[in-house]
Amino acid sequence: MSFFQGTLNQFVLSKEQIQKIVDGMTEEFVEGLSTTDPKNITQQPSFITRLPTGQETGLYLAIDMGGTNLRTAAVHLLGDGKVGVTMEKHEITQELKTGTGEAMFDWIADCTASLLKKVVIDMGNADLHMGVTFSFALHQTAVNRGKVLAMGKGFDLSDVMGKDLKDLLETGFSRKNLPVTVSAIINDTVGTLVSHAYISPSTKIGVILATGTNAAYIERASEVSKYNGPACEQMILNTEWDAMGKASYLPQTKYDKEIDAVSLVPGFQEFEKMVSGLYMGEIFRLVLVDLIEQKAIFESSLNGQVPEALRPAKAFKTLFMSTIESDSSADHKAVDKVFKTSFGVDSLTSEDRTKVFNLVHAIGQRSAAMTAAACATLLYKANGGSVHLDAVKEITTIGIDGSVFEKYPQFSQKMMKELTKILGEDRASRVRLELARDGGSVGAALVAMISRNGGAM
């Protein structure tokens, strides 16, 4: 077997390898339901105990605070699964990120006031209810309360750590004379599940598959032994599956291990490092450099010499993989375009282009297969276990948001094909994979509505 073929084969997963992922993640999901170890961040209760029906109506505010931008939105729930969204996006400056908490939350209030001028609503004397998507670590104690643990992403705010986010926001609104009540604080994955359930009531799982990856699902409350809140029948859990994945069951190659070893936190988020958009391109780059040095590819044009432009970490973007795989023609001319434009490599042979295409395909296929395995595990959990899944006849929808799922060629079809292998045709025929959007804003507004009406505690 050639060096190239042996390398390629490392990314082609067997049925046994897929089953090991299913079994391993099942064990971690179950462990996360009961663990009180503060280092284990998986299976976080959201305090949301029901999903929308799709018939809800009303106007709710939402903010989605990330590392770069703040999005403010007025979400009109129109019933029949329909929404109208008025949104503004504001860049969070470095000055704000490193200033006082008071300045940050005054600015958030000002951004909210700007939105309210645009939507022109009759507020009267009533409070406006807001849902908040907060992309930073919180110790959540209720559906609308959580203490800020750490922020990162360039933030260094004074007088914020350890304080309750609801209090910080509402104090800022009060200083600006805005009658806004924070009714819900959520994670973006929970928002994806809730917002897609409004459109497709059969939704039981929400997934983010973009730069990073995560998932949320509905679990029977009796299974969540670490939850000590008010009694309920079910609970949406933020799985934090990005933090799952033990080397004992993941099919890691030497390239995956290299990525993990040089990451900020080695041994953490191994699953995410094998499947998400932040890492797929880097996996390909490491493999390609190895193949070039072994003269297993590009021999006639490079003769074992790696171009300088390919040497820096993250130099090969996952977007390049998407461009290459979008051209499935026999001559794979998109390979020429990517390598000539971005790396100054030309005069590739037909064999070289085919090798590049096949390698890109294998890495993308592995990501889809591993994500499908994780989804299969949650399908079992969300439907009461593998035995009960046979008895479930209704459709179960998985709402998936993110650039990898939306834009990587044929990704949803690859996932569905792998799910069929794992579940069998009969079970898989009852599963739908659907693109979900606007989870951060619509999802937050919907949870605010659910909370206000007593559906979340």
UniProtKB/TrEMBL annotation:
Pathway: Carbohydrate degradation; glycolysis; D-glyceraldehyde 3-phosphate and glycerone phosphate from D-glucose: step 1/4; Carbohydrate metabolism; hexose metabolism
Top-level class of the enzyme under EC nomenclature: transferase
UniProt keyword RNA-binding, yes or no: no
Xref: Pfam families: Hexokinase_1 (PF00349), Hexokinase_2 (PF03727)
Keywords: ATP-binding, Glycolysis, Kinase, Nucleotide-binding, Transferase
GO cellular component terms given for this protein: cytosol; mitochondrion
GO terms for biological process, alphabetical: glucose metabolic process; glycolytic process; intracellular glucose homeostasis
EC number: 2.7.1.-
Residue ranges of domain Hexokinase C-terminal in the record: 204-449
Reactions the enzyme catalyzes: a D-hexose + ATP = a D-hexose 6-phosphate + ADP + H(+); D-fructose + ATP = D-fructose 6-phosphate + ADP + H(+)
Segments forming domain Hexokinase N-terminal: 7-198
Molecular-function annotations in GO: ATP binding; D-glucose binding; fructokinase activity; glucokinase activity
InterPro entries named in the record: ATPase_NBD, Hexokinase, Hexokinase_C, Hexokinase_N
Similarity field: Belongs to the hexokinase family.
Protein name: Phosphotransferase
Organism: Linnemannia gamsii
